[in-house]
Design goal:
This protein is an alpha/beta fold and about 475 residues long. The chain has helices at about 10-15, 20-40, 50-65, 105-115, 155-165, 180-185, 220-230, 265-270, 275-290, 305-330, 335-345, 350-370, 395-400, 405-410, 440-450; strands at about 45, 75-80, 115-120, 170-175, 190, 210-215, 260-265, 295-300, 375-380, 415-420, 430-435. Strands 1-3-2-4-6-5-10-11-9-7-8 form an eleven-stranded mixed β-sheet, sandwiched between helices. α7 packs antiparallel against α15.
Amino acid sequence: MDPTLLTIADAAKLISKKKLSPVELVSACIAKTEKLEPTLNAYVTFTPDLALKAAKVAESEVMAGKVRSPMHGIPVGLKDIYDTAGTRTTGHSRLLKDRIPTEDAFTVAKLRESGAVITGKLGTFEFAIGGPSFDILSPPARNPWDPTRMTGGSSSGSGAAVAAGMVLGATGSDTGGSIRSPSSLCGLAGIKPTYGLLSRRGILPLSQTLDHAGPMCWTVEDAAIMLQGMAGYDALDPAAANVVVKDYTGQIGASVKGKTIGIIRHFYEEDHVAAPSVVAAMETAIDVFKSLGCIVKEITLPPLMDFAATGLIIMSSEAFSIHEKDLQATPELYGEIGRDRIMMGGLLTGGDYVQAMRQRRELCVAVADAMLGVDCLFTASSPFPAPEIDKVPKWLMYQKPSITMPFNVTGQPAMTVCAGYEEGSGLPLAFQLVGNAFDEPTLFQLGAAYEAVTSWRSVRPSLA
């Protein structure tokens, strides 16, 4: 048995029964990282000594019968925008290459409390926007399914590390799709929870209006377990929602018969025409949900470009406001792609921003109306499988509308689920499930039901 290919759920059961040592598990992940890191570039800062030290503590607690949670002893990587006390957090940028926080981000502290073992800081597009870039602090992460391909972004190292079995789970952030895009292209289950569910204190910001934190894992159940470990109200985060933390695994395994799913076809068939392999995978996935007893109905939302334009104006304006001073003082410390994308925000006016915020409200109302009578929405996650890493246009996000951006605009929970692999290339394909605010359990229930009757979770990239 290769412990690095265990799910969090299975590893947790073995650890609680004292059949698997946290030290054994973490050591195996460290060994795999040392073998694959030269190819995948998943890490910015790898901390094996700290991980082994934490694993030994976890092992002693487990042996004493003090299992904290299903995350106890589980190796987890952090996107390098999550602050870690005593370990540098750089945003994958030369600008912050020597920045060492004195406190953990709130969600990192929660993971440590759950018993998770932090293995280091994973690569990101620079400041969660600039990439894939070859002129930043270290090379960009590569896709374990094919290292000539990109992982998606901006949570690039997280996608690579989980898919390859370097860690069993990783944190990501999502401002326009940065959890769901790499989860899609790397074959993972990744969720952008409801806006405000997870604290963002201690996470380098890109856009305060659109930023979300969340987990990226191999299975839907693992994502639910990890979200449980990250959730909790943070009174010091002004955007945090003071809501009861639900049992995110509680509905997994329950029948989904009678659940109503609204299919948004026009996003991937008309607004941003997806590759034929993606369209075919969506139809197959819809048929699976029908076979499970779900009721499927067609849903029409405003054009995808309306969501994309609204989200990009908000994101660009807020990103520029965060970086303006540093861009003026030391532009050479930014990579070209990150610098140019952020500077785009300087060309927008206050009127542009205000109109985008007004349009955002109208779009939120339109989606809320469309969701009346449905349990969740369904659409594609990425319109294409992973492209070659050195052939991604700098302005791709401005040229064609993102299928993930709509749900950053609305703030609803949205989860990527692997829908199989493209014939020939073997690259992952994926769909999104989108729920009502704070109804993550329904997404986990539906996503896990789909995984249970498909074979995709038994397939790993050859590098793993």
